[in-house]
Amino acid sequence: MAKMTTQQLQSMKADGIKISMTTAYDYPTARLVDKAGIEIILVGDSLMMTVLGDDSTVACTMEQMIHHIRPVVLGAPNPLIVGDMPFGSYNVSTEQAIANATRLMKEGRCDVIKLEGGREVAHIVAAIVAAGIPVMGHIGLTPQTVSKLGGFKVQGRGEAAARALVDDALALEAAGVWGIVLECMPENVGKAITEQTALPTIGIGGGRYCDGQVLVFHDMMGIFDRFTPTFVKQYLNLGPDIVEAFEAFRSEVRSGVFPEARHVFGAISESEVD
Ligand code: KIV
What we know:
With 274 residues, the protein is of the alpha/beta class. 43% of the residues lie in helices and 13% in strands. It is built from twelve helices and eight strands. Strands 1-2-3-4-5-6-7-8 form an eight-stranded parallel beta barrel, surrounded by six helices. The protein binds 3-methyl-2-oxobutanoic acid. 3-methyl-2-oxobutanoic acid (KIV) is lined by residues 23, 42, 44-46, 84, 138, 181, 183, 204, 214, 216.
């Protein structure tokens, strides 16, 4: 395999080849994703919920993102690595946005950055792209502004709301994003955006017509049991298996079954112990 590029992903759209993307927040997971040949890894600010136990992504910091992006980059040389810009790290000014995007690239070493929002962030996207940093867009349900949206719910219902999402996608394309995440919207809205832009669209609850799909690692592997959104397909249900393994370990420690002779180091002479 060779390093995935944004240009190759755009060619995949042109050739009708579907793109897969998942999240990873650490080195061992990144290695597994790389081995599976997945094209894009997102080091998402969803780490606040899936790994750090928070209720939302809002409190995520630049330091936390850099801390998690770096091991993913080390573990996965082949996929394109997308680093999420945390809430508040790109809305103060274009200077602030460029400075923080640059930090993710230089300190985290991701390949591209992602930020949430439509027309209202188009000027920020344009400034970051002009600074030489590839940007991925993210519209529909944007978790960083979940309070403003009134909860984790489907966006783009109704003609005006659907039109607004298409306009957001077109504005981001004009601003220079290379691709876009479509989260939680009616399938025909995802289809319209996919057809009306040259951008690879990566859906998460964005429907079957998107150019690719993204699932959060912990959701698809059955490790995150606080809630399971409708759009999630669980490919494994690891949670119960892991609990069973911990229970077996605890019971064997208590009964003395573990460790066995093969887990201990050879004895030294009694005199050396004294
Ligand atoms: O942070 C994240 O995992 C995301 C996905 C929901 C696309 O932005």
